[in-house]
């Protein structure tokens, strides 16, 4: 995106502090199309839109309402910017959540920037980003904007096209809560953890394993292994296990809170990074008896080097596993050398149906 100018005159406009929810059924008072500083616009659409593969799809709110989308037949690199009203940096941080679709080959990216004026210069940082095809469905996105920086700021939701035609990039149901950072909690007892605040829904298991997972920012200390940054924004925090201090076969458990039953199953998703010549094994499992690691049943596992990139994993938890209250757990097992760091970020448990 080009360097943009935040008009200093805008900063003296009286501010509304109230949080805002936008389902696009009525004109938004919080989000606006940028007309001059980008290449194309977000379009308002009602009803179905012909999707990449599977035909006509409606909005997220009701399936029949309005949402925003960009025309992906435009050139690669074309940018569509939706900007927020001017926001006042709160004492405790803010939480912006939204539903998005990014579907299709080479369709492009969606990202959120925080824009502020620092000593007369406009600065912006990416706080959240998804690159490329994210499945043929509405996905939930959420990011904490911390209570730091200048007094006023703007958020920018940007789509950047990848040049592939026939795909879809869309947005709906944006919630802007300027009173607090995002909490881990989702509806129905589910949770979402991006490690930008101290997690409350998952934690290290003590005593029954050999060591603990660590929350990290930037690269890990060992060369040739571990990510260079987190998956949320590239500049945030993630969870990892440091292989160099441990011996082959050593394990570390990361266990969730007890989740209430779901009679139609659940969906566990996360990003993982497993790069290095000595990477061991990462397993996701479900505990049938809360607190009892011995009742863990593996639902997903991966071993060895997976390349220097974050990968997305999505696992349906069948209703037989979620009919009683349950817990989910990640197990890291160290490989046979120091280049074996395993990292996780953006863990989400949606406790209301399969993926
Ligand atoms: Ca809608
Ligand atoms: Ca525009
Ligand atoms: Ca993160
Ligand atoms: Ca431990």
Describe the structure.
The protein has 355 residues and is mostly beta strands. It has 2 domains: 8-177, Sandwich (Jelly Rolls); 187-350, Jelly Rolls (Sandwich). It is 1% helix and 43% strand. The longest helix is centred in the last third of the chain and has 4 residues, at 319-322. It binds calcium ion (4 copies). One calcium ion binds next to β19.
Small molecules (ligands, ions, cofactors) in the structure:
calcium ion
Q: What would the principal axes of the Cα set say about the shape?
A: globular
**What is the radius of gyration computed over CA atoms, rounded to a whole number of angstroms?**
21 Å
Strand content: 35-45%
What's the short version?
This protein is mainly beta and 355 residues long.
Structural descriptors:
six-stranded antiparallel sheet; about 350 residues; about 0% helix; 25 strands; Jelly Rolls; disordered N terminus; mainly beta; binds calcium ion
């Amino acid at each position: 995106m080009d360097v943009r100018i935040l008009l200093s005159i805008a900063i003296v406009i009286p501010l509304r502090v109230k949080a805002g929810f936008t389902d696009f059924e009525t004109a938004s008072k919080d989000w606006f199309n940028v007309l001059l500083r980008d290449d194309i616009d977000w379009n308002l659409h009602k009803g179905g839109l012909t999707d990449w593969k599977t035909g006509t799809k409606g909005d997220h709110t009701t399936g029949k309402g309005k949402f925003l989308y960009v025309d992906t037949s435009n050139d690669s690199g074309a940018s569509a910017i939706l900007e927020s009203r001017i926001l006042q940096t709160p004492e405790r941080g803010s939480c912006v959540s939204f539903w998005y679709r990014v579907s299709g080959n080479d369709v492009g990216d969606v990202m959120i920037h925080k824009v502020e004026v620092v000593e007369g210069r406009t600065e912006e940082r990416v706080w959240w980003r998804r690159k490329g095809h994210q499945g043929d469905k509405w996905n939930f996105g959420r990011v904490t904007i911390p209570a730091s920086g200048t007094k006023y700021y703007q958020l920018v939701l940007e789509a950047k096209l990848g040049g592939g035609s026939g795909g879809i990039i869309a947005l709906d149901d944006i919630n802007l809560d300027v009173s607090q950072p995002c909490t881990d909690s989702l509806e129905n007892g589910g949770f979402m953890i991006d490690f930008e605040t101290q997690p409350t829904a998952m934690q290290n298991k003590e005593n029954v394993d050999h060591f603990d997972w660590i929350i990290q920012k930037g690269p890990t200390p060992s060369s040739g292994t571990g990510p260079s940054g987190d998956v949320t924004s590239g500049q945030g925090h993630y969870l990892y296990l440091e292989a160099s201090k441990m011996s082959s076969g050593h394990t570390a458990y990361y266990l969730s809170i007890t989740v209430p039953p779901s009679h139609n199953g659940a969906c566990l998703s996360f990003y993982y990074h497993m790069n290095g010549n000595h990477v061991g094994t990462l397993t996701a499992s479900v505990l049938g008896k809360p607190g009892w690691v011995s009742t863990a049943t593996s639902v997903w596992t991966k071993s060895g080097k997976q390349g220097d990139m974050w990968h997305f994993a999505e696992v349906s938890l069948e209703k037989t596993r979620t009919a009683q209250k349950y817990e989910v757990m990640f197990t890291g097992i160290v490989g046979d050398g120091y280049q074996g760091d395993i990292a996780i970020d953006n863990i989400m448990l949606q406790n209301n149906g399969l993926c």
